[in-house]
Write a structure and sequence with these properties.
alpha/beta; binds 2'-monophosphoadenosine-5'-diphosphate; six-stranded parallel β-sheet; six-stranded mixed β-sheet; 37% helix; single chain
């Protein structure tokens, strides 16, 4: 009798070599004494359907999905969670009874990160300003509405994209132009950057955060570098700050639980492992 294959999962994207998900899931496999594996799989654009057909075979329990496949994964699923449907994208796949299921755990990860790093953020949620209007902004809006946010203002380089996103979420969400940022900051309780500005290799995010009220929480979903100029400046001014690493860690929790049957913990040790990896990558010559 042949032994059943070890449980495994993976992250699919294009490119994928930069993904830190294996570091996270392998840490949890070891911490929980589970014999299994988690890899990176490079899947070229257009080839996701061929990949998802392999889920459910040879021990492959499911997959995480990253750029550029999140919308294709959404389209490939037989069943979607409410979060996936609201966000219009899937980052976690598994198969059950032959059917392909998809979830989007980015909103959960976004909230888990804020709760862990700046727990008082939920005390003041009347006014939120989100920079950006892409997939990450969509997940943040879904998360914040679920958390009871009052008014959410989206500010994006391309105004039309912000207006379309706001319209999709109803009256609590509105769009304003990029030039209005400074006017919006004094009443914001929470400022979130979901653009790629401030990321390694991208232009800096040039906004004057001194207009924020002292109690306002500042969150950047960029985690490379860990301390973006936005986070550095906000911390210098005494704001509660939340970097992007925790979102990556917390969004991984429910996929691991589905594939390997144990709800894993985001521990300080795991965070330190990732911080170290990010610092090392930052030091490598380009
Ligand atoms: P994600 O899924 O990570 O949100 P995305 O959908 O590509 O990625 O969205 C990237 C976001 O960063 C968008 O809000 C984008 O603004 P546009 O919609 O105007 O393109 C923003 N962004 C990227 N580069 C930018 C730049 N140089 N200046 C301002 N905003 C930028």
């Amino acid at each position: 009798m042949s032994a059943s294959p070890l449980p495994r999962s993976c992250v699919v994207g294009w490119p994928i070599s930069h993904s830190r998900s294996p570091l996270i899931h392998r840490y949890w496999l070891k911490a929980n004494g589970i014999e299994g594996d988690y890899d990176r799989v490079a899947v070229p654009p257009g080839e996701l359907p061929r990949f998802v057909a392999t889920i459910g075979h040879d021990g492959l329990r499911g997959a995480n999905v990253t750029v550029p496949h999140k919308e294709a994964a959404f389209a490939a699923c037989d069943r979607l969670t409410d979060a996936a449907r609201a966000i219009g994208a899937v980052n976690t796949l598994w198969r059950d009874d032959g059917l392909l299921f998809g979830d989007n755990t980015d909103a959960f990860g976004f909230l888990g990160n804020l709760d862990e790093r700046a727990p008082a953020w939920r005390d003041r949620l009347d006014h939120v300003v989100i920079l950006g209007a892409g997939g990450a902004a969509r997940a943040a809006v879904h998360a914040l509405l679920g958390a009871g946010a009052g008014q959410i203002v989206l500010v994006n380089r391309g105004f039309e994209r912000a207006a379309a996103l706001a319209a999709a979420f109803g009256p609590k969400v509105s769009a304003r132009s990029w030039t209005e940022i400074t006017k919006l900051l004094p009443i914001a309780n929470l400022l979130v950057n979901t653009t790629s500005l401030g990321m390694v290799g991208q232009p800096p995010l040039e906004i004057d955060v001194s207009a924020l009220a002292p109690s306002a929480t500042v969150c950047d979903i960029v985690y490379m570098p860990l301390r973006t100029p936005l986070i550095e400046e906000a911390a210098r001014l005494g704001h509660p700050v939340v970097d992007g690493l925790g979102m990556l860690l917390h969004q991984a929790v429910s996929g691991f639980e589905r594939w390997f049957g144990v709800r894993p913990k985001v521990t300080p040790e795991l965070r330190a492992l990732l911080e170290d990896d990010i610092l090392q990558a930052g030091r490598k010559p380009k």
